Amino acid sequence: MVAAEERSDEMEGLRLIRAFLSLPPDKRAEVIAFVEELARAHGPPEEGAKVSPR
Predict the structure, then answer these.
(1) What is the rounded CA–CA span in Å between residue 20 and residue 11?
(2) Rounded to whole angstroms, how far apart are CA atoms 13 and 10?
(3) What's the rounded Cα separation, in Å, for the pair 32 and 8?
(4) Average pLDDT of the chain?
(5) 2, 28, 31, 37 — which has fewest CB within 10 A?
(6) Measured between alpha carbons, how far is 5 from 38 in angstroms, rounded to an integer?
(7) Based on the number of CB atoms within 10 Å of its own CB, is 15 exposed (0-12), middle (13-18) or buried (19 or more)?
(8) How far apart are CA 18 and CA 20, in angstroms?
(9) CB of 20 closer than 8 Å to CB of 31
(10) What b/e readout covers 19-34, taking b as 16+ CB neighbours within 10 angstroms?
(11) Cα–Cα distance for residue pair 37/25, rounded to 1 Å
(12) Alpha carbon 5 to its chain's center
């Protein structure tokens, strides 16, 4: 079951990448700016804290 979930996650990631790459350059820039803003709002992880890959 775990392998199937991992494949599903991989497939979803590939779909997102394909969707991103199909956007025109100006829309890609908007997506990148949005994600950067989310990352800044979330803030850096605390010192010594483990960062989850998900």
Answers:
(1) 14
(2) 5
(3) 24
(4) 85
(5) 2
(6) 26
(7) exposed
(8) 5
(9) yes
(10) eeeeeeeeeeeeeeee
(11) 18
(12) 17
Query: Which residue reads 């992880």 in tokens?
Result: 45
Euclidean distance between CA atoms 14 and 22, whole angstroms: 12
How far is the CA of 4 from the CAs of 8, 17, 32, 50, in angstroms? 6, 20, 30, 26
What is the DSSP secondary structure assignment for residue 23, as one 8-state letter? S
Residue 28 tokens read as 């890609």
pLDDT digits (tens, 9 = 90+) for 24-46: 999 999 999 999 999 999 887 66
* The model scores a pTM over 0.90: no
